[in-house]
Design goal:
Layout (H helix, E strand, L loop, with lengths): L4 E6 L6 H10 L6 E7 L3 H18 L4 E5 L2 H5 L4 E4 L5 H14 L9 H25 L4 E4 L4 H11 L6 E4 L2 H13 L7 E7 L2 E8 L7 H11 L11 H16 L4 E2 L3 H5 L1 H7 L6 H7 L1 H15 L12 H14 L4 E8 L12 E9 L2 E4 L7 H23 L2 H10 L6 H14 L9
Parallel strand pairs: 1-2, 1-4, 2-3, 4-5, 5-6
Antiparallel strand pairs: 6-10, 7-8, 8-9, 10-11, 11-12
The structure holds nicotinamide-adenine-dinucleotide (NAD), the ligand O=P(O)(O)OC[C@H]1O[C@H](O[C@H]2[C@H](O)[C@@H](O)[C@@H](O)O[C@@H]2CO)[C@H](O)[C@@H](O)[C@@H]1O and manganese (II) ion.
Length: 441
């Protein structure tokens, strides 16, 4: 078994990169690295974070070999892990994904509804190209992908690379929820043994066992329904995220069976959310004015001062920890539990085998060994099947260049429903995505 690993971080200029770099430093005794490479197609953006990384590593990881590059051969050769968090089109396109549907009377959101559809149609091609390029240089490396919309990216990659055994799509929202439950209950979330099912950004915790096997879900559900719910890092969250977490209490009052993923608010309460979202100032604006600005300002500050001592915003969080701990579990065959995306194949007994579900899995050197959850009740089955049909039609629309399938996808989405509205949104999105999407006919 190898003792030191090489990692390339794709999307080196991501706002999440500094937090991930800090997680690599914090966990370096658990996942020792020989070499870290940052790769991005945007040289200027990556340079700011890359220079910050040099300062950080000089203080916390001096033995690490580190470079940042825009050259694929340099980036992808001789790698053990590829961590991937790219955003095709950047925040400028995210803003359009959010504002165009809102201007036409539908939810505009990064990964849900029409916004998520538009983003998928940009992400799929770049992610396929990435996997092909990585495989040219590092045929056995593990690709751990965060790139959104992860549900649709996962289905598209599964269709294009059906024999890939070392490609895993992940999301940190479930672990972020577990950390939030931990704060609320005054318990260490690392001790939780969760039972979870659904699609990415579309799932539920059915049970939350503690180390003694006691299910904490009932007490958690009544506490949240009565007192509300906040993220673990509430003090650092923007207003929109606090509102998102508070919607969990509404969902639990209406549907008390299971603890819902926060993203379900857009599908369960599309009219209410539409009335609350500002079509002129969306989450993309909040991020560009907030996290993006703070991260890049603080990275420049650290470089100017030659130390990371005075920078605080680039902290460790669920995002960085999860990806590093997942790689650790693969590297050292730890069989730790994570919530990840895998083909269903009977895990949810009354869903089709090829649905990309999100469930708890043990992660070993062979990858995920997922846990089945049996049959799910009709309400959840109905929601998931409708959402998966939307996701699958989106993937097929991309591969086939089919306008009809794109229209079917948007019509099936619970945030749209009306086919005429779907057509208006689709046409407006096509007009703004000519540089990114395949041509639809
Ligand atoms: N799955 C999850 O739970 C999760 C959590 C957080 C973020 N994300 C995703 O991570 C990604 C990054 O998010 P962000 O908000 O930091 O965005 P960002 O725009 O700050 O960073 C993305 C970076 O990717 C680069 N990039 C774009 N296309 C590329 C390509 N083809 N190859 C290499 N690099 C490319 C950009 O230049 C940019 O520097 C997004 O896809 C986001 O949705 C996912
Ligand atoms: O709107 P953004 O860009 O702030 O976030 C979008 C992402 O939101 C989720 O990620 C959480 C993450 O789970 C948590 O660890 C913490 O760091 O906050 C993030 C949100 O700020 C979601 O899971 C991702 O898929 C989204 O891209
Ligand atoms: Mn996610």
């Amino acid at each position: 078994m190898k003792k030191e690993f090489n990692i390339v971080l794709v999307g080196g200029g991501s706002t999440w990169t500094p937090g991930l770099l800090k997680a690599l430093c914090k966990l370096k005794s658990r996942l020792p690295l020989k070499k870290l490479v940052m790769f991005d197609i945007n040289e200027e953006r990556q340079k700011v974070i890359g220079e910050f990384a040099k300062v950080l590593f000089s203080e916390s990881y001096p033995e690490l070999e580190f470079i940042y590059t825009t050259d694929k051969a340099t980036a992808f050769s001789d790698m053990d892990f590829i961590f991937c968090q790219m955003r095709t089109g950047g925040y400028a396109m995210r803003e359009k994904d959010e504002k165009i549907p809102l201007s036409l009377g539908a939810i505009g959101q990064e990964t849900c509804g029409a916004g998520g559809f538009a983003y998928s149609m940009r992400s799929i091609g770049d992610m396929i190209e990435l996997v092909e390029q990585v495989r040219q240089y590092s045929p056995d490396a593990w690709i751990l992908n965060y790139t959104n919309p992860a549900a649709i990216v996962a289905d598209a990659l599964n269709k294009r690379f059906p024999d890939e055994k070392r490609l895993l799509n992940i999301c940190d929202q479930p672990v972020n929820l577990l950390r939030s439950y931990g704060r609320l209950l005054g318990r260490d979330p690392a001790t939780f043994d969760p039972v979870y099912f659904g699609l990415n950004h579309f799932g539920w915790f059915t049970h939350l066992y503690d180390e003694q096997g006691q299910d904490l879900a009932p007490v958690l559900k009544s506490f949240i329904a009565e007192n509300g719910f906040k993220p673990v890092d509430a003090e650092q969250r923007d207003k929109s995220w606090l509102e998102t977490y508070s919607a969990v209490a509404d969902m639990l009052r209406d549907f008390p069976d299971y603890l819902p993923n926060t993203y379900l608010q857009y599908y369960l309460y599309p009219e209410y959310k539409l009335s609350k979202l500002d079509p002129h100032y969306t989450r993309a604006n909040e991020v560009m004015d907030g996290r993006e600005k703070r991260v890049f300002d603080e990275c420049r500050q650290a470089v100017a001062e030659g130390t990371t001592r005075n920078v605080h915003v680039v902290h460790n969080d669920a995002h960085g920890d999860m990806i590093v701990e997942l790689a650790e579990s693969i590297a050292f065959n730890l069989k730790k539990k994570f919530i990840v995306m895998v083909p269903n194949q009977g895990l949810v007994e009354n869903l089709d085998d090829d649905v990309m579900v999100e469930v708890t899995a043990e992660i070993s050197c062979h990858g995920p060994r997922p846990y089945g959850v049996g049959k799910i009740p009709v309400f959840y089955k109905g929601l998931i099947e409708q959402q998966f049909a939307y996701e699958r039609l989106t993937v097929e629309a991309w591969f086939e260049g089919s306008y009809t399938k794109a229209l079917q996808a948007l019509t099936l989405n619970r945030t749209i429903v009306d086919a005429k509205k779907a057509r208006r949104i689709l046409d407006a999105l096509i007009a703004e995505n000519k540089a990114w999407w395949p041509e639809l006919h």
